[in-house]
Amino acid sequence: MFDERWPEEAEELARALDAVLDKHCPPDLLRGADDAGAAHDDRVRRLDSALAEFGLWDLPNQPYLLTRAAVALGAHLAPVPFVSAVPAQVVLDTAGLANGIDRAVVPAGLARVLVAVGDDGLGVVATPDNPRRSAGGERVVVIEPVTEPPTPVDGHVDAVRAWGFLLEAARLVGAAQALIRYGVPYVSDRRQFGVPVGSFQGVSHPLAEAATSVQSADLLVRHAAYLGDADGAVPLFAAVMAAAKARAASRHAAATVHQALGGYGVTVEADCQLYSRRIRAWTAAMPDPGPWLADLARTLADPATRDQVTDLWQFDRGFTLPRWARESR
């Protein structure tokens, strides 16, 4: 049976990262992104400096640590290109490359973009100079169509895909969990007819369903991180499953929390819209996991190929100690 708990090393990292983000990435910094000026840009630079000093970009290439960091960054909606840059950093050992595999939009701020060449090759192109604001308020760059011949690099495209899906799923899980934590206290305190509105089944049941769905996505993210840590490579099928569930669950959470908050939930003064706008922008920018899920289904449905997919279930193999348990004393 797999051990899909976050190891203490990852949780310690998350607590320390949360402390930095609490100080340098408050909601008013995110709200100011829509009217970015010199003051806002200076605050973003301070955030970047604080995260660099923290060592975010120097984390070892360990799935648990990188994935747990992505969850924390998503919970704070931190405007840093960590999720986009890490796949190339892990697979190619190259920093500063945005993940443009199967994507038309990447975060602004990275000088080069990693793109697919042919069926399974990789190449690098310069980031176009056309930044704009996404629907979520973040600065992004449109990279399609690629107008220059990519410079080929060694590496397998599916390895980059797996890391991209996993980290985007982790970021969505973090944002959705934070959004639910934002909504639940409101419905517990807001009273109508002499009782908290959260006591009404029409409010509490949808929130519980959304929270359960996000928890399922969280478990799939941990499953993929566990397999990556135990076997040395993140399986594409596990990352795709996590991405598909996180995509649906985060959108479900955004819609449900908005509905629970009523008119307050759609005002720009409320923090709720900061999360829901970014969740919708992130899920729109990421590739649709559907084609890879269909490939997985066809592989599993064919008796001649189903054995190619291992570790789909928790009990597919005996209990394997993860690295953090093997190295602990």
TrEMBL record:
Pfam families: Acyl-CoA_dh_1. It comes from the Bacteria. Gene3D superfamilies: Butyryl-CoA Dehydrogenase, subunit A, domain 3 (1.20.140.10). GO terms for cellular component: cytoplasm. GO terms for biological process: fatty acid beta-oxidation using acyl-CoA dehydrogenase. GO terms for molecular function: acyl-CoA dehydrogenase activity. Keywords: FAD, Flavoprotein, Oxidoreductase. Residues 169-282 form the Acyl-CoA dehydrogenase/oxidase C-terminal domain. Signal peptide: none annotated. PANTHER family: MEDIUM-CHAIN SPECIFIC ACYL-COA DEHYDROGENASE, MITOCHONDRIAL, MEDIUM-CHAIN SPECIFIC ACYL-COA DEHYDROGENASE, MITOCHONDRIAL-RELATED. This is Acyl-CoA dehydrogenase/oxidase C-terminal domain-containing protein. It comes from Mycolicibacterium elephantis.
